Amino acid sequence: MCRLACVVWFVCLFFGCVCLLARAAQSTFDYRVLATNKTSTMEKEMNEAADAGFVFGAVMGGETAGGGKEVVVVMVKDPSKAQGDRRVYKLLATSKTSTMQKEMQQLGDEGFEYKGQTVFESAFGGKEVVVIMERDASTPAKKIHYKLLATTKTSTMQKELREAGEAGFRIAGMTVAKTAFGGDELVSILRKD
Fold first, then answer.
1. What is the mean pLDDT of the chain?
2. For 11-28, what is the mean pLDDT?
3. Which of 12, 72, 133, 147 has CB 3.0 to 4.6 Å from 90, enough for a Cys bridge?
C-alpha cells in the first residue's frame, strides 16, 4: 500500500513538473497599438510605450476606419526578454530625399538603427516618407552609415542598389508610393555597420 502511494505521488509530481515546464515554455506577448495623424505625437507615444517595456513591432500609414489618415504603429512586449533594456525612438518624416538622408545619418552617428518605414499623408495634405529609428540606450552606441535611394524606375534602382552593395551597403527597407520626393517612386534605405 505504501509502495502504491509512493508511485502515485511520484507520477503526480512528475506530471505537475511537466505541466509547469510546458506553461513556462509558452511565449506570451502583449501589444500596444498606437495611431495618430501627427508624427510628433507618434514619437512621443512610442517612447512612452518603450518606458513601459514595449519595443517596435510594425508600422503602416494609411486611412483607418475610425481615424482617417493615420500612422499606425504596433509595439510589442515579450515577457521573456530582459526588462532592463531601454529603447529610444525617433520618427523622421519628410518629403525631401536629401533631408531624410541627412536626418537618418545624424541619428546613425548616434547609434540609432532603422526599424521601419511607410508613406503617410500628413494633416497638411502632403505625402511624406516616415522612418522609425531605434536605439537601445542600455548599450554603447555604434555608428551606422545610411544611404537613401529614390527613383521612379526599377532598372535605375537595380543599378543603384548594385553600386551601393559593392560599397558594402545592404538593404534595410523599401517603399513604393507617390511622394513629394518625386511622384511615384521606389524609396530604398540601406545601411552599413
1. 83
2. 55
3. 133
Per DSSP, 152 falls in state S
Average pLDDT over residues 107-125: 86
Which of 31, 190, 65 has its CA nearest to residue 117? 190
Determine the straight-line distance between the first and last CA of the chain, rounded to whole angstroms: 69
Residue spans of the domains in the chain: they are: 30-192
C-alpha closest to that of 94 among 60, 131, 47: 131
The number of residues in the chain equals 193
Residue by residue, DSSP assigns 25-92 as HS---EEEEEEES-HHHHHHHHHHHHHTT-EEEEEEEEEETTTEEEEEEEEEE-TTS-TT--EEEEEE
Amino acid at 38: K
User: Side chain identity at 192, as an amino acid letter?
Assistant: K
Name the burial class of residue 145, with classes exposed (0-12), middle (13-18) and buried (19+) by CB atoms within 10 angstroms of its CB. Answer: middle
Please state the pTM of the whole predicted model.
Answer: 0.79
| Average pLDDT of span 155-180 | 90
pLDDT of 131 reads: 94
